[in-house]
Design a protein that fits this description.
By secondary structure, this protein is an all-alpha fold. Among the domains are: 110 residues, MazG-like (Helix Hairpins), CATH 1.10.287; 29 residues; 48 residues, no CATH class. The longest helix is centred in the last third of the chain and has 24 residues. The protein contains 13 helices and no strands. Helix 2 packs across helix 5 and helix 10 packs antiparallel against helix 11. Belongs to the nucleoside triphosphate pyrophosphohydrolase family. InterPro entries: MazG-like_dom (IPR004518), NTP-PPase_MazG-like_C (IPR048011), NTP-PPase_MazG-like_N (IPR048015), NTP_PyrPHydrolase_MazG (IPR011551). It catalyses: ATP + H2O = AMP + diphosphate + H(+). It is an enzyme of class 3 (hydrolase). GO terms for molecular function: ATP diphosphatase activity.
Amino acid sequence: MTEDKATHPALMRETADKTGIRRLLAIMAALRDPQAGCPWDIEQDFASIAPYTLEEAHEVADAIAREAWDELPGELGDLLLQVVFHAQMASEAGMFDFTDVVRAVSDKLIFRHPHVFGDESRDKSAEQQIKDWEEIKARERAAKAEKGVLDGVALGLPALTRAIKLQNRAARVGFDWPGPAEVLDKIAEETRELVEARDSADHAHLTEEFGDLLFVMANLARHLKIDPEEALRLANAKFTRRFQSIETALAAQGRRPEDSDLAEMDALWNEAKAAERV
């Protein structure tokens, strides 16, 4: 370990020629060095690192949701590391490098903001800017020969988020319900179909119908201008908070949830619910 560290003394601290992102890129290259690097880092590929990339993005979102601002720099750093890791592997394969990544996103930002970097007026609403953004992205997809309306919606997105993006794409060409009332009617229909599937022995069919209901629920969120992921995160937080209140109330009696029953815990849940409304 000592000998390996001595091989890269400049990386152990910031120096005049290795500061900021340059130092990070050099560290990543050293970790991937076939002779002196870290065995684990050397063994990784795009597919094996992708789950960590998603995990780090979620941890950034978690720190923001908790307003843990002291943790956010570290979490953002972990996410940046994922970009650097992918870029290093691509560089080794002769595909592209970190500079190409930075150039691509810089060019994209300039191209997608003609009201800032071009001659378009900035005097437009946020809603109009979103519409313009989608039109610009549509032109980009056309340039990439993505001919289908739904082409390019990433498969790796969280399912609810991907559902919204698919529905937004379809809505742009007129494939959409007029408003929330029609979506609610569809929810009632999908609920009936789910009940019918529940009484069958076909689990695959039950799963399909449940997915249909979730998809329509996402569509309702879109019509109501609600982020379904955010709504579910809030519901998760509320459930956690109220269940912890149950645990606290039982602990005051020297008991745990498994020592209770549904009726008692439901009553404690209602007490916690009522307390939140005070």
